[in-house]
């Protein structure tokens, strides 16, 4: 069987002398939307930083499309096809929505240029109505969408979304959920880090649960939905 698109194998991460991740192991197949779930401080953001090269593993590895990417600098990992959207939205506030997208434009690792500004505006109609607005003037939810859109403009193989619903009003959370569902249905491979399992239930296809820096559960999202023990033990629901 072919190797999964993204494979994390036995990864340990330390911050100074403290070990944060312990032998993290999971895989994501092309087209999956994987929810990476866990409580506050469980290790979700560190897992993303490890994949993106900002917190490299001291043991174990990250493989993308059969190639080892861990150990490379973050810009090389991004170029290899990992699109990372961190928790704090990162737009260029003094530039327009359109320019923010153009700055993110680059061919994917295999030369594909699937995402163009036209395509983005079809999928993100809210942004289409504000092309010339300065990004710093957008609401938090709009900035979140712009950050996701700009990352897609780099034509990544997989996109890592760190708590995209955090701190947003319920109606905006709904709009972000609809957007991620649309990307899922287009076949974009997504990892969605969330504390909020309910946000993920209608979006994700698969689930991986992290607790105290270790992976404690991997299943389809439907299996998780019915697993009361895992939900109450690790997700406080
Ligand atoms: N720069 C750092 N130095 C030392 N410890 C850190 C650092 N960043 C995070 N940690 C610790 O690593 C552990 C995992 O944090 P992480 O941010 O990965 O969790 P998380 O699951 O993403 O939680 P959150 O939902 O709060 O973002 C926590 O115990 C945290 O205190």
Task: Give descriptors for this structure.
single chain; 237 residues; alpha/beta; Rossmann fold; six-stranded mixed sheet; four-stranded antiparallel sheet; 10 helices; binds adenosine-5'-triphosphate
Question: How would you portray this structure in words?
Answer:
The protein has ten helices and ten strands. The protein has helices spanning 44-52, 74-80, 97-104, 117-123, 125-128, 140-152, 170-185, 197-201, 221-225, 228-234, and strands at residues 6-15, 18-28, 33-37, 59-64, 67-68, 82-85, 158-162, 189-194, 206-211, 214-220. The protein has a single domain (6-234), classed as Rossmann fold (3-Layer(aba) Sandwich). The strands form two sheets. Strands 6-7-8-3-9-10 form a six-stranded mixed sheet, sandwiched between helices. Strands 2-1-4-5 form a four-stranded antiparallel sheet, covered by helices on one side. The radius of gyration is 17 Å and the shape is globular. Helix 7 links the parallel strand 7 and strand 8. It has 237 residues and is α/β, with parallel strands linked by helices. Helix 3 runs parallel beside helix 6. The chain binds adenosine-5'-triphosphate.
